[in-house]
Amino acid sequence: MLAVLRLGHRPGRDKRTTTHLGLTARALGADRLILTRRDPEVEASLAAIQDRWGAGLAVEVRPQWRPVIRDWKGTKVHLTMYGEHLDEVVPRIPRGRDLLVVVGAEKVPPEVYQLVDHNIAVGHQPHSEVAALAVFLDRFLVGAGLRRPFDGQLRIIGSPRGKRVAASPGRPLPGAERASSNQE
Amino acid sequence: MLAVLRLGHRPGRDKRTTTHLGLTARALGADRLILTRRDPEVEASLAAIQDRWGAGLAVEVRPQWRPVIRDWKGTKVHLTMYGEHLDEVVPRIPRGRDLLVVVGAEKVPPEVYQLVDHNIAVGHQPHSEVAALAVFLDRFLVGAGLRRPFDGQLRIIGSPRGKRVAASPGRPLPGAERASSNQE
Predict the structure, then answer these.
(1) Over the stretch B109-162, which tens digit does the pLDDT of each residue have?
(2) Pick from B24, B26, B125: CB nearest A26
(3) Contact B41, A136 (CB under 8 A)
């Protein structure tokens, strides 16, 4: 299992960032998103995408984040620009074990730095937790996350120009989309 | 030059996403961010970060985006989940030429797909333009973007635990930060 723990989500303000974080987790190879606060808007957005494009990311709410980290059976990493550069750490993360990736919003409680096995910097400059998660997952999974299959109502057929969308076998195409059409 | 053209920014709603996009561009190796609408909040956030952590990203506003793409001397790519998978396209992008990376918000005008050299999918699943830009830049620059030096007031010394921040040579540490201190 590869899970992402999102710390410090503020409903309203972080709605889009946390939604992007969840979608990024799903699209780049994570199985699970753990939120520490319930946010119906985020949960509804993620559910709508998974309904259409295929499940793959379990979403759960665990207000007590300390036991989530402490009791995790597997490797625990925290993405922070203060950590060790990912070029150095990623090769040291064991494969074939469960992995928990902790991603904060603004301020992360100091003890998080102590509870994890590795604090990992996706560069030492401020940028975005969404970007950091994406690069980390792409590096850790060596691109395989982006090739993960999904069993959705819709499936994109990659195209040099325009948009090609197909219905998955046995499923009708909803609404406006047409199989293999070149719409934009 | 490596520039990012952000299409379709809606002031207010997209403020944080576009700020994250700009910071990601800067931290992962881009030189320039081109916005098509002025947004003082985004520009102020990016300026504040660059003041503290070092310049590196020129920000300009060009309301007419068509000539930006059309007149670009160099390669032009557009990140879209409908494009060709980046595993296939990235190796075909010439090195040593200027590169324009077009990144949309919600809806991208159909002609963008025609104006660029490559439509590139960072996976064929919906996620985040911030994540897509990050992974694209990391792949295209083979990690070098994340090693780019910045001449800021502050510099992070990567650390397995806690936070170590140093002033750059000849510059005083502002406010609360102390050189090589272990604060969190």
Answers:
(1) 999 999 999 999 999 999 999 999 999 999 999 999 999 999 999 999 999 998
(2) B125
(3) no
